[in-house]
Fold these 4 entries.
Entry 1:
Amino acid sequence: MNSSHPGRGVAVEGCLRERLGSGRKALVTYMTGGLGADWVRYVEAMADAGADVVEIGVPFSDPVMDGPTIQEASGAALAAGSNPSNILDGIAGANIGVPLVAMTYYNLVVRAGHLRFARQLASCGVRGAIVADIPLEESADWEAQAAGSGVETILLAAPVSSDERLAEICRRSHGFVYGVNVMGVTGERASLSESAGALAKRLKAITDLPVIMGFGVSTPEQAAEVASYSDGAVVASALMRMVLDGAGPGEVADAVSKFRRALDRA
């Protein structure tokens, strides 16, 4: 366990505020749950290499927000028999030194029931949730059940959102506000859109929650770029491509370390 982190028992927002309060930018990484028998080792390696928060992807058969890489990872995990229960069981007793956030789709949440799903997350030590496809207008009950169970709902903010909608997202988000760098799905990109900086500035002007930017952050240099106008970066597809191509936990940890160093210089 990385002793520089406050630990997975600490709320996501508390962990990130501690990181930002020390003058450093935040790094959020992602691992598809159930992708290989040793997938939890990748989560542990990410945490030890400097990730402040790790998203655990709970695969769904129709991941509409995800691009080819995470779709491929999700498909492989599902084909191997992964499901929400065995993914959560897998991390329940794991030695992970940072807060965990479940990233999934509403079909899985509503099938389990809002309260039951929230309690399942909390009982396994998951402190946050991103439900990528639930409309803001329909998420109030989920947010309430999650909050009552000790799970922070992290909401996505898109570049095309109106000022009024961004304000509502910031008011209702917990843990951090997830700024979407580009319109479209997740995935590696050669460069980031100018809309990323504009969105981050809009969000920073209306909330004191950590603003973490994701979608398309593929290199340490890009992570440093987005961190120059926000509080940190989410790195997902770039790491999942490594796992799919056969990289072991140590190699992924080396990559995370490079992102960590780039953000520490940002």
Entry 2:
Amino acid sequence: MKVVILAGGYANRLRSVTNNGEIPKTLLPISINNESKPILFYLLEKIEKLPNVDEIIVIVNDKYIDSIKDAVNVYSPNVDVSIYSDGSHSPETALGANVAVQLANENISKSYAGDIMIMASDNYFEFPLSDVVNYYENLKDKYGDNINLVVSKKYLDSEREFIANNFGILNIDSDNRIISFDEKPGIENLKSNNASLALYMFNRRDLDKIDEYMDSATGKARDSLGHFINYMINNTETYTYPITGIFYDIGTPDEYLRLAPKSEENKLDNNI
């Protein structure tokens, strides 16, 4: 299995703790069980526990490629890591997650026919990734190999406004098949409490559809991965795995504050 980490963003909302954008968001420290380590290290630890992963692909940008390469060397993973830049060098030239997925797919051998896990580089979660893979394998046993999976979490009604403005929302049937996907729909258009967690499983044949999608996509549809997911839902069989437990999308100062080491809290307190 291949695992792709999307780390090409510029974290504009976290400039108060990224030294005005000089530090990649995925290298921000988080405190887990009183141990401080970069978000990326936490994700690599999770991935290393998976069986049968033969390569981790990290998609970055020109501004951060050296610092992320240095960090991976420090971590020294027990799985081969390939790092590619999307060629952008500033927020103004950012190319978006779909370009990152397309770049990752281009750098996987065309002869490879296995599964591909794709994840954001700025998420904290406590469930093992093996739960996701096992659920996906069970779906394939039931429905065949040509399916895809979006990991989700069902939030409380009290959190509806938060998820409506910060997540892609999945509308699903009784078999957990995704019927439609609404990218940050706003509270007035929110149809469910099922939030996409930017963690996916794709079969290789369907992931190749990223090329035909990008050939026709324009404007914001080229940037947000949610638009590609909606395309996949309309053209493939796509299911969701609803996880329970803790999950944080570390995209804002408020969310980062939940996990920030004490040394970082003062910076956030002074800038929120």
Entry 3:
Amino acid sequence: MTQKRTIGEKDFALIIPAYNEGESIGGLIEETRGVYPTVEIIVISDGSVDDTAKTARGLGATVLDLPCNLGVGGAVQAGMRHACDLGYDVVVRIDGDGQHAPGEIHKLLEAMEQTGADLVTGSRFLGKGDFHGGTKMRKAGNVMLSWFLSLICRSHVTDPTCGFWCVRGNLLKYFSLYYPSEYPEPEALALLRRQGYDMVEIPVSVRPRKFGSSTIDSLGTVYFALRVGLSLLADRVRPVDRRFAKQPRKKEA
């Protein structure tokens, strides 16, 4: 039986997409260094006009300073592409607003080691209690999207828009080239299923934002869910890319 390999901090890169997160990014990097002192931190400043890039660079992070705002999908793809170019086979992604705790990264990596999944994503709705800041309209939008995505993926999905996840191997290479830009997180889950890859959800905590506010209001969440649902339906006609489709594992003799 093959022994599961432990994923250490030298084995993965941490990517942080950030748009005008100058007030949050410094504390987030310092918190991360307290848990993983030597991990490769890649901050993608997505056309920020504040001091996001300057602050991150001053704290020793690698900074991809994009000349214009691509949106979270384009920023995440740029980070994955850079990590692949550096030779990393595992990438962890957290948001730049400080809502994801670096101290919980180990949960994602351990789940990946134990399950063999190609992607492990956090869920705000699997643990005890509820995540901070969820209005009734936002919860309704999430339920709609979760139900629809679970139907398409033929697997239970509880948090299709969580930005706290890790990915590895050929799926990482595929996403580094073809990561969705319009509705990145839910479309990525649908795409990985079509390509034959596996994913699991694990409970994570989400902290309240210390600075700024979400760009999607309550009504916007429901509208977002409806638009994503239509996009996912249209996406079903996209052919599988055989170059990156997961190959069945060979049975051990």
Entry 4:
Amino acid sequence: MKNILGIGNALVDVMTIINDDKILESFSLPRGSMQLVDRTQSENIKNGTSDCKKSLSSGGSAANTIHGLAKLGNDSGFIGSVGKDETGDFFENDMVSAGVKTFLTRRNSITGTSVAIVSPDSERTMATHLGAAVELDSSDLNPDFFKPYNILYLEGYLILNKPLVIKACELAKANDMKVAIDLASYNVVEANLADFTEIIEKYVDIVFANEEEAKSFTGCSPLEALNIISGMCEVAVVKVGREGSLIKRGEEIIKVGTINVKSVDTTGAGDLYASGFLYGYAGGFSLENCGQFGSVLAGNVIEVIGAKMDETRWSKIIETLQKGFNEDDQL
């Protein structure tokens, strides 16, 4: 199986359950979006939701995907930047305990956090203070980090540091690695469309996008977007929520459904879909199997709060992937 290296914003997620969406309006947070906030606004949001049920976990889009891959048994690594604080220690310990090899630069700034606000219908809205995460620099990318790996996975949020993305991609290609990227968030795509287009056309082999991100990137419906994106890379994946996902490589188009679940929180669904898909891709499975693996992980993670699952659930997931799928899975 191919080894996978991820690069992304090293954050600690503050999962916050709300009773209604008024709190989103009070802090001018567009429902379902990811908004970058400064330290003061981050603290105000945390204080303003102090009465809500909360939990902590290591986070960041790419970190979630790499964490999931390690739980599946993939030899995975992660490059990121955290503070010299207890929050940074929490992030590193959580990743290492999952089996991830970490390449973390420690900064004097505080470790970044993402307040993940979960609405009653399971939609999640992210208010992210990047903190030390945003200080990850192209100079932190040691070429030796890349040598043991075969696939580089990037989160789209890194597009805000284009030189970092370019150097990472160049180091990956110098080591004959495949490059995969998730478009991250529709508003990030809208604000950085030209840069995304340039990076994907020049370096990327696999693109993950949800329906909104695909529309922001191409201006088209999911199937039309799939066709456009697949013309720019080897494999294009457009996730369409409850309808599953569309996958295209060359002239091959596959539609994969979802599994029957009771959604509690959509946080991490896209990240864990990427875990499952890349696990299949790294193992040489068919595109249909890759999509099925992605659906199994995405379906399981939305049944829990946050992007992390307990050992019992992981054991069930691994058993499912090993044995295949039964009629009730509806894939």
